[in-house]
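User: Predict the complex.
Assistant: Input components as received:
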Amino acid sequence: MPELPDVEIFRAYVAKTSLHRRILDVEVRRPRVLGNVSAPRLNSALAGHAFTAVRRHGKHLLLALDSGRWLAMHFGMTGSLHYYAADEPPAPDARILFDFVRGNRLGYYDPRVLGRINLIDDPDDYIAQRGLGPDALDPQLKRPQFEAALHGAKGIVKAALMDQGRVAGIGNLYSDEILYHAHVHPKTPVAALDGPALRRLYDSMRTVLKEAIARGAEPERLPRDYLLPHRRSGEHCPCGGEVEKTVIAGRSAYFCPRCQPAP
DNA sequence: TTCCATGTTCCGCA
DNA sequence: TTGCGGAACATGGA
């Protein structure tokens, strides 16, 4: 689930449900999801405080506390958030539960336990320490900055799009969609991209991510002329051609050979 | 039972 | 140094 559009949905969800509510307790049911902080330290840092703001960088969600500290959430491959009213029992497989006053709760779920939660002092330091590039939807990221981010990459374009150090937020699913709209084959070397191809990649990155957010980050709800609703090998591309699957960097990559001719 | 999965990181190799 | 393939992490669904 959690690529940029999903995490953006989480951001709006937290903003709507969980800000300015005093936290009573943090229930850590699976300590493995805690990165740099123990369960007792997390609890003492949060209890009595409230989240005051929430922002997103790439696939990372950053929650400000009224103490000045921040909680950094990453969702791995399967993480999500669910908010519960006082009379709703949280699902039993929550990894972490943030208990607010009056019985409301925010639950952090992650079946595969690949996500992490860190307690940090400064989100910009955190982003820098992790070597993250600019957020893919940052208004400051214009076409020249995007081209600069890809510049010098020696590998293939799908890997470069997913490289969080170049541009943050694009994962395996949406890189396929972006390449599909740009009519670029996923194995095209970055060095072989000409000006028009770079322009199409930038435009489709912005369009695809915004459209995905508008559709609630549910790939199946994307327009029919998108690739993701047809992302199975043998399925028909909107153009009538057949969707093909290949493996790139250990990940499955789907594309339409008719719309995205081999480099 | 086996394979595969929306992420990240580490290792070995070229 | 860079990039790639593969493995590991842990779990559930097809």
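Residues 1-3, 6, 59, 74-79, 112, 114-116, 162, 164, 171-174, 219, 251-252 of chain A lie near DNA strand B (CB under 10 Å from a C1').
Let me know if you want any component modeled separately.
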